[in-house]
Design goal:
Elements: H1 2-5, H2 8-28, H3 40-44, H4 57-68, H5 71-82, H6 85-94, H7 101-129, H8 134-147, H9 160-175, H10 179-190, H11 197-206, H12 215-239, H13 265-279, H14 287-292, H15 296-306, H16 319-333
Length: about 350
């Protein structure tokens, strides 16, 4: 089995199948067209509410691609869907509008590629922080992919998979110190979601006084990231200044009070197990992951005010970090020395 899972084509074949399952779960339950302030057509054409409309990377890509496709193809796809009983049933289940079927299909292609990219980026990050046998790296990457649906709660958005891919890729470039590529990715990611700035926090913590980057370069790179972030957010603010909504959504009193009702025993045991596996053997785990997990502090604090505390999709940026910290314990249980030849 170990030999089979190390085969490149077998690994990507299983990734394609498993990502297909995860993708179907994502678009079916809870779906990408459920929240009235971030409905799919409005996201694509820039009329949704703020702050969702600021997350324009994938919507813009879908809109541009759609505009290239001839009008007769748009009309033909819509007619075929509307004339098919099965097609109408699928649209009803997914809450999709038939007149935007072309845009939905384009978005699905982009989103699936980003999901596959998440696996690729996660595996790159794993092998960057650990000394791992190929079979174990493949196994953990597939396990992480299979675990993703546990985070699909309340709503899903078309920018979720791009968020995971770009942030995880940013961590890879950061740990490998490929600064030119890192800044390019940072620039692109700022058009996807404002949590990109958390990469700057990881950078600031991990590279502070570590001797691998000069002080001059350290501060220049921080300044560059802040400048890029502010410039893009200012541009997006003025582009969508007339859209309804605010720069953030405030949710402290409309859902988070429910946490005081307590959790089920199963939920408590699961979170306790994850917590223990994350922080046990702390001194033996990679410094990069221990520095990166600090992004959990602002994410959790802000979730009380700007999101739902129990909405796990709010922690997509934290997912690869926590999963890789837990991976150390899994490797240790299997008798693997993942820190061999690692600093």
């Amino acid at each position: 089995m170990k030999k089979l899972i190390t085969h490149k084509y077998f690994f990507w074949f299983i990734t394609a199948i498993l990502s297909g399952y995860v993708f179907i779960v994502f678009i079916k339950s809870p779906g990408i067209n459920g929240y009235e302030r971030a409905m799919f057509p409005e996201m694509i054409y820039g009329t949704s509410w703020k702050p969702f409309v600021y997350r324009t990377l994938l919507p813009s890509a879908v809109r541009v691609t759609s505009e290239i496709i001839p009008e007769q193809i748009h009309n033909s796809l819509t007619e075929k869907i509307e004339d098919s009983e099965f097609g109408k049933l699928v649209l009803q289940k997914l809450k999709w509008e038939s007149e935007f079927i072309t845009e939905y299909l384009i978005a699905m292609i982009y989103m699936w590629w980003f999901l596959v990219g998440v696996v690729y980026a996660f595996r790159k990050l794993l092998t960057a922080v650990y000394y791992s046998p190929k079979w174990f790296a493949n196994f953990i990457s597939l396990t992480a992919l299979f675990a993703l649906p546990t985070m699909f709660q309340y709503y899903s958005y078309i920018y979720d998979f791009p968020t995971m891919f770009l942030f995880t890729s940013g961590l890879v470039l950061l740990v490998k110190q490929k600064w030119n590529y890192f800044l390019i990715l940072f620039f692109i990611s700022c058009f996807n979601k404002e949590t990109t700035i958390l990469l700057t926090l990881v950078f600031a913590i991990h590279l502070y006084n570590n001797g691998k980057v000069s002080k001059r370069l350290y501060y220049k790179l921080i300044a560059a990231q802040i400048f890029i972030f502010i410039s893009i957010k200012t541009l997006l603010y003025f582009l969508f200044i007339d859209n309804p909504g605010g720069f953030v959504e405030f949710h402290l009193i409309d859902r988070n009070y429910l946490i005081f009702n307590g959790f089920t025993l199963t939920t408590f045991v699961v979170w306790l197990t994850i917590g223990l596996m994350t922080f046990s053997k702390w001194g033996e785990k990679p410094k990069f992951l221990k520095d990166a997990i600090w992004i959990g502090v602002p994410l959790i604090v802000l979730s009380f005010f700007l999101g739902f505390f129990d909405e796990l999709r709010d922690y997509y940026e934290l997912f690869p970090i926590v999963f890789l910290l837990v991976t150390f314990n899994i490797g240790r249980f299997l008798g693997l020395n993942l820190m061999q030849n690692r600093n």
